[in-house]
Amino acid sequence: MSTVLCIDDEPAILRLLSVVLAADGHEVMTATAGREALTIIGRGAVDAVLLDLGLADRDGLELIPAIRAITAVPILVISARGEVAEKVTALDLGAADYITKPFDGDEVRARLRVALRQGAKSLTPDGVICHGPIRMNPERHEAEVSGRPLSLTPKEYALLKALIEANGRVLTHAALLERVWGKAHRQDVEYLRVTIRALRLKIEEDPARPIVIRNEPGVGYRLG
């Protein structure tokens, strides 16, 4: 299985995470401080990182871009900070997911499995990008779901492409708005909601119960 680095300054949490992750066969490494964690990550033997934000030597939010400068492995934040603003900041900095303490072991394992599966971009040799039943050919500006061609507006196409390229990671409202509409529209969430609604009508089997385009309330969207 994978090697997972757990970063937390509470030994009891590290012991609990070690037991939880070992149940899925993962090898677990631990660090109690940011400097120690960066040293371990720099050796290149880590497949994923579970990160607490309340470290003794530095704020975990500062550690996310430092990790990103070394590796592209998924970073899952596990923190007692449950404010939406904290989640948005962590995701914008490059975290793949955000789990609030107290956490459920089954949820941690499930989210880690998703992050590891989607850690590498689904890019075929002919340049087609895929996610589940969705296939897109950016060069030809074509898209299909379950073999059925999709007729998408330019904004719908750009939004769907951004979500696929995120490989299941949550993209915040601001990040999606900036990418598709430009920096001047980072606060225009209604633009995003309208376009997501239109995409769901074209992609989902039951748009009222979407399973492909998932909503993270108050934060953003991801592909399921």
Automatic annotation (TrEMBL):
It comes from the Bacteria. Residues 126-224 bind DNA. Pfam families: Response_reg, Trans_reg_C. Keywords: DNA-binding, Phosphoprotein. Residues 3-116 form the Response regulatory domain. GO terms for biological process: regulation of DNA-templated transcription. This is Two component transcriptional regulator, winged helix family. GO terms for cellular component: cytosol; protein-DNA complex. The modification 4-aspartylphosphate is found at D52. Residues 126-224 form the OmpR/PhoB-type domain.
